[in-house]
Amino acid sequence: MIRIGDFSKLSMVSIKTLRYYDEIGLLKPISIDRETGYRYYTVDQLPRLNRILALKDLGFSLQQIGQVLNEGISPEQLRGMLRLKRAELQQQIADGQERMVRLEARLQMIDMEGTMPQYDVVLKQVGPQLVAGVRDRLASYPEVGRLLGEVFEHLTHAGVDPSSLINAAIWHDDEYKTSDIDGEAVVFLKSPVPASARVRVYELPAATMASVIYKGAYNKFSQPYEALAHWIEANGYTVVGPNREIYLECSMPVRQDDESYVTEIQFPVAKRA
């Protein structure tokens, strides 16, 4: 028999780790001296310890390793676990590569501007969202307020307080326009309400969004929009649908030059092929 210290040197595994493996039943000593508490192992236990280390190196948790060693799983079951771990690692590599692209883009931006970027763009998953909305052709972007008024009036008649709900604009054009703008005003609903000839009640689809939070006046929207456009291009994405402006904080009556407003601007994106 080999004392734990010598077994630690032989296996190149710390005493602390060997004791922990004993506690969780992964590798128990062959004998424990009742008087001294010394743990003893044998050379025959080295193959089991090496298998623990090998599976741990492949990314398996100690619980999964215990299942492999103690429950006698079949080769097919082990093959399935290895394939699943391979898929997890492939996803981690892909996520790491995308994170590296974002990091390089941020470094380039700092190098170009000589300072920290004013706007932080994040990628977020947005689930399906129930809305009530009115869509129309507008002479200017601020005119979306008129459409919001229609939605508010409809909700009030339906017994819903629109002041407690978040509202937004959806811009359906593929480009910036100075007139004949395809705009939609929506209010995010907590439960369904009846529709009308003008007000449509439907579910916005889930999407991957490039998003930025902007605090400032509506007449300076060009700044966060430019930051989003640069981020989308630099990180290898493309816009795949109409963008949204979510008005998180806005006092009434609406003013285009109020610097206290808080808006989230979202663009649905997908990786370029």
Brief overview:
This protein is of the alpha+beta class and 273 residues long. Helices cover 38% and strands 25% of the residues.
Structure description:
The structure is a single chain. The protein is of the alpha+beta class and 273 residues long. It folds into 3 domains: 2-70, Multidrug-efflux Transporter Regulator, Chain: A, Domain 2, CATH 1.10.1660; 82-113; 122-271, Regulatory factor, effector binding domain (Multidrug-efflux Transporter 1 Regulator Bmrr, Chain A, Alpha-Beta Barrel), CATH 3.20.80.10. It has helices at residues 4-11, 15-23, 46-57, 62-70, 75-113, 144-157, 222-234, and strands at 2-3, 31-32, 39-41, 122-126, 129-138, 167-171, 181-188, 200-204, 207-215, 237-239, 243-249, 262-271. Strands 4, 5, 6, 7, 8, 9, 10, 11 and 12 form a 9-stranded antiparallel beta sheet that branches. The longest helix has 39 residues, at 75-113. It is elongated, with a radius of gyration of 30 Å. The protein starts with a strand and ends with a strand. The model has no long low-confidence stretch (mean pLDDT 90).
Task: Write out key terms for the chains shown.
Multidrug-efflux Transporter Regulator, Chain: A, Domain 2, 273 residues, 7 helices, 38% helix, alpha+beta, 3-stranded antiparallel sheet, Multidrug-efflux Transporter 1 Regulator Bmrr, Chain A
